[in-house]
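WARN no homologs supplied; continuing
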Amino acid sequence: FNLYVITGICMLALAPGELRRVEGFTVYLITAFHSLFAYLWMAIVLIWITPDVVDFSEALITFLLMPWLVTWVYAADRNWFRNDAQVHPVENGGGPERAELIPT
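OK structure emitted
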């Protein structure tokens, strides 16, 4: 829900006829998936596992899902999932210890 509200506000902020593109689409998809999963997880916890109660283990799992999400989004932002990325040496005297990841 929160992702939908943010997306809607971003769309309303554009001038008529102006187009924008999501640069980190993989990051957006991971965030969208985790947003939907968070609501599904809360429904599972509050309806099936322990109805109307959140015990400590469920709270701990819920709390640990945030660093999990941040790690996945960071990895996607750094293009760690791209198969077509190659390592090229940095210009101006860069050796193997100074290389950067450049998508091809």
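The longest helix spans residues 25-49.
OK
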